[in-house]
């Protein structure tokens, strides 16, 4: 019984340290759009598109664009859901700036 209690307490305290850190990513979310970045002089350096067709007739489109100006780099991602008539049902858009990790993580 005491052994089980000690193991329980150990895992209870250990769980406080097992949360992932969200501040070690090298990509920082930005409020900027494609238009903002183009107007600031950024150029498109790479572009990729991927799509998935769902068995119910839905299409999922994924666009990734990399923009650069001097040493500043942004990656913009757009996720779009279309129905079988190619009408947009949902669009999500985010641009992220390449930065140093906010906090040094394991192995960085």
Plain-language structure description:
The chain is α+β, with helices and mostly antiparallel strands. Helices cover 18% and strands 44% of the residues. The chain has two helices and five strands. The protein has a five-stranded antiparallel beta sheet. Strand 3 and strand 4 form a beta hairpin. The two termini are 42 Å apart. The model has no long low-confidence stretch (mean pLDDT 83).
The main pleated sheet reads as: 5 strands, antiparallel
Distance, first to last CA: 42 Å
Order of helices and strands: HEHEEEE
* Poorly predicted residue ranges: none
Radius of gyration: 21 Å
Bin the helical content: 10-25%
Structural class computed from helices and strand pairing = alpha+beta
Mean pLDDT across the residues is 83
**Which CATH architecture is right?**
Roll
């Amino acid at each position: 019984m005491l052994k089980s209690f000690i193991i329980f307490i150990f895992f209870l305290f250990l769980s406080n340290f097992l949360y992932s850190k969200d501040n070690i990513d090298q990509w920082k979310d930005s409020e900027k759009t494609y238009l903002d970045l183009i107007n600031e002089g950024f150029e498109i350096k790479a572009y990729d598109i991927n799509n998935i067709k769902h068995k119910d007739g839905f299409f999922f489109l994924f666009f990734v664009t990399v923009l650069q100006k001097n040493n500043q780099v942004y990656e913009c991602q757009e996720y779009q859901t279309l129905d079988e008539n190619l009408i947009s049902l949902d669009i999500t858009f985010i641009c992220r700036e390449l930065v140093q990790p906010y906090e040094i993580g394991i192995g960085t």
